[in-house]
Amino acid sequence: MAGRFVPRPTRTTTRGGDTQVPDERRQEHLDLGLTLGPLRRGPYDPTFRVTEDGSVWRATRTPEGPATLRVRAHGAEAETSTWGPGAGWLDAHLPALLGAEDDPAAFVPRHKLLLATHRRRPGLRLTRTGLVLESLIPSVLEQKVTTTEAYGSWRRLVLQYGERAPGPAPEGLHVMPDARTWARIPSWEWHRANVDGKRAATVVRAARVAPRLEEAAQLPPPEARKRLELIPGIGPWTSAETVQRSNGAPDEVTTGDLHLPGIVGWALAGDRTADDSTMLELLAPYEGQRHRAARLILLSGRTPPRRAPRLSPNDITRI
Predict the structure, then answer these.
(1) In the predicted model, what is the mean pLDDT of residues 273-296?
(2) pTM of the model
(3) What are the DSSP calls for 264-301, one per residue?
(4) Which listed CATH number (3.20.20.70, 3.10.50.40, 1.10.340.30, 1.20.140.10) goes with 133-218?
(5) Which of 114, 199, 207, 275 suits 1 as a labelling partner, its CA being 20 to 30 A distant?
(6) CB 102, CB 128: distance < 8 Å
């Protein structure tokens, strides 16, 4: 089927202390930056690295343990290798991770801007990780703070409490902590990581019911969001940001965002004052593909001119 990955014959591999599974998969067009980019939390994310040869390295914690992925695009193909106790699980989920379950043909542009961007970005595929906590926790850290602050907090906590990625990973690549470790981080370490008590408590509550939350990756996206939002501190913004990644949800648009309604309103109607209600009305023609439409709008580069000052970082470590 168009836009799907098809396994190809691979070279014989050996399995030692680490598991290495080279593989190649084909697609009409593959853009690793567009597909895997949403999983990267800032340029210094310790779980994500792009090396000089164009390879994307990603460290992740699967239900079977830590795993490292290396993927490199060769035109319309991708060569992949995995290592670690979770390599088998990661291998089984690689097609979804690289966008094989996504169907961009379901998107019908109804605005010239989206038509042009859709044609200019043929490699856009929506990833599906099948993992909830690894997208939920950084999304919680991003609540009501600047991305720079959130990225710094994520980096510090992963480096301090995570573990080095298995296999021949680049120096500094780390797997995030397991749920038990997240739940046991002391309050003063959250403070040192510039995470306030409310966000820290939300992460701890989520970590304590991690198995139930991870089940949400197999639910329809609306049901997955409802399950996540049962946790105090997780609202529509956080659940959407999580499910877009864990479930590969093409219709789960983010509401409650400080900038997105104005960007969508400006791009589709020249209205920079649009709120969530107006944004959803403008995206209504794309029902079923509203998240993809919003991604394309962001990729178009058409944003309203800035009037208000940027949100200032709040360093709570000095309090």
Answers:
(1) 98
(2) 0.89
(3) HHHHHHS-TT--HHHHHHHHGGGTT-HHHHHHHHHHHT
(4) 1.10.340.30
(5) 114
(6) yes
